[in-house]
Fold each of these.
Amino acid sequence: MPEGFEGRINIEGKKGFIIRGWAPQLLILNHKAVGGFMTHCGWNSTLEGVCAGLPMITWPLFAEQFYNERLVVDVLKIGVAVGMKEHVLKTEDRPLIHGIDIERAVSCVMGVGEEAEAMRKRARELGEMAKSAVMEDGSSYTELTQLISELSDLHP
């Protein structure tokens, strides 16, 4: 960490804190103080963000992450891209994402106005749908139960 960084983050224990090591992502995403999620768009993180009902700032790096970004930004309309356009194998060859691009994305997700509020509302609604799908009698619960039953019937 740069010298003085922790002091700028943790002012009298009121502004923020630094987690060293593995962070409990699900607990963090589901905390009432979290208003958005910057993600690399890996499938698990994407699902965790959707289930938490959060709008997302997308920053894919490789593989299917660019497809997941399109789902979040263009289909579900609950995200804003920082501008990473293509997979580059070597880290040192990746294009630089400028702070102004990150600031723009954060402002779009956390800002005021009809578009930002509509994105947050869609994200919350998708989160509720995801939670209800895994509850008893929800679509995912029912389909998984049916699959287990069918597989069990194959080997009595």
Amino acid sequence: MSYPETLRYTKDHEWISLDGDVATIGITDFAQRELGDIVYVEVETIGTSLKAGDVFGTVEAVKTVSDLFLPVDGEVTELNEALANSPELVNTDPYGEGWMIKMKVANPADVATLLEAAAYEALVG
């Protein structure tokens, strides 16, 4: 499994990439493998300000539904529209075309407090 070193990670298996105060968020390679074939991604929090740890949506796989947790405080601004017709992008390219949301981060410094790739890899073993 891969864990790009340019990203930060949560213990809940989300990844985050920061560009200024705009973050892109998705689930990790480990998470998508554990879930299996992704069939639906639901996010109904566009335009909503949330706190770190709040549920921003759900991901549905063939056998289960899992909550998606926001890594840092901020406002959800965009959903990856490609997932509506191709949710399997989360499986095939979790760090690229399979991203889930973009958000305006309240405090960009908070991203630095999340797990680095090596720490996340150690967490999932």
Amino acid sequence: MSEPALIVIDMQNSFLHPKGENYYASAGETVEPVRRLLDAARKGNRLIVHTLDRHRRGLIDFEQKRLPEHCLEGGFDAAYFEGFGPLTDNPREVEIVKRRYSAFFATDLGLMLRENGVETAIICGVKTNVCVRATSQDAFANGFRVVVPRQATNSNRANLQEASLEDIDRYLGHVVELDEALSQLAGDANG
């Protein structure tokens, strides 16, 4: 079996809380499916990576050339949405702070996954066409099997959601139903 890890992308107030600076209503559709994936990964003693989009106050950040200043460290928007983030008593849950779309870029994510025998990256969270897509592409480029549960990710633009999932499934990995990803995290299916 291909050892899976769960990579949870940007489940933060910025996207999920109605007062978040990047909030969009359909982001909330990911909350319950991602919680179910977290429960399954915890029960299966899987490595869980929680990513945060977080930027430094007062310093230039290249991403600002494309996006307005957002998710500033220490602020409400940069914090995890209620019920998300690593459990403090579980050493198999880690946090990766990222300053670009991909959780692999300029982080030790690939190294950590390889050192822990991970072969499959189950990637969920927000937004499909930006951070989920970029992380999926870099997971593939780093030699990991990519799995994206359809119901556990979304975008504020339906056309980009569908196009991104189609690209991921065709070129980078497998877009699956939530139950299949839950089964893989529980150890019920080969990866």
